[in-house]
């Protein structure tokens, strides 16, 4: 009942993306429902449960930092610390879970035979199109700074709506626009910056993780976080994998979903790269 035939998806990439968007929205709702439900079961304030819901899980450290003070304004003492600790837990758990889950799906169901072989000639054309030179990087770096500068203004405008957004959302939107302009015009040499930024983020994230904060979490918080881990496994294994087609691509997508669903987008990229290289 969950499987969507690939011939409905490949001719319509937008349809494919919208279906996955629906899955992500469903995950966010379930994360918050699980957090609030477990909090009530443990006789905790539902807002304490939200500190382990989609805010730190799908949201990550940036969203945790944005919403922590909001929850504190609602009377939840130490909400920022709890959100940050939960995000740190998710960063580790999403990476630990994603790779093995993707590998298990591929090996158990013999999905390598469903992998679509890449056309080497197309790859060579793509390499030529994205050929990089040292002289391109200064311009790309300044474009990155420009995206952050304009993004700061955009974030300020968004905050005027009365809604709470992570501080990076403005820069992310501007950078997405610039990236698409670069792809379709070929006039903005930013190729390669993504890979460099990913490596820098993972390095900085790993050396700044305060894992000892997890030891300070009370038993109820650990139960809340364990519930999120169980939810992520069940949702990706039984829902995401089936809806996305039960093939090799779906298995890779599952590993990525664990990465950003409990950590951050770079975790998703790292998980999927690890599965593909394996």
Notes on the structure:
The chain is an all-alpha fold and 278 residues long. Helices cover 73% and strands 0% of the residues. The chain has helices at 6-9, 13-41, 46-50, 60-73, 79-108, 120-129, 136-159, 169-185, 193-208, 219-243, 248-262, 265-277. Helix 5 runs parallel beside helix 10 (219-243), helix 5 runs parallel beside helix 12 and helix 7 (136-159) crosses helix 8 (169-185). The longest helix is centred in the middle third of the chain and has 30 residues, at 79-108. It starts with 5 loop residues before the first helix and ends with a helix. Mean pLDDT is 82; it is low at 1-12.
Write the layout of secondary structure elements.
Elements: H1 6-9, H2 13-41, H3 46-50, H4 60-73, H5 79-108, H6 120-129, H7 136-159, H8 169-185, H9 193-208, H10 219-243, H11 248-262, H12 265-277
Helix pairs in contact: 2-10, 4-5, 5-10, 5-11, 5-12, 7-8, 10-11, 11-12
Q: Major sheet: size, sense and barrel closure?
A: none
What's the helix-strand series?
HHHHHHHHHHHH
Distance from N terminus to C terminus (CA atoms, Å) equals 30 Å
Mean pLDDT: 82
Instruction: Flag low-confidence runs.
Output: 1-12
Shape: globular
Find the count of extended strands (DSSP E, 2+ residues): 0
Structural class: mainly alpha
Amount of helix: over 70%
Number of helices: 12
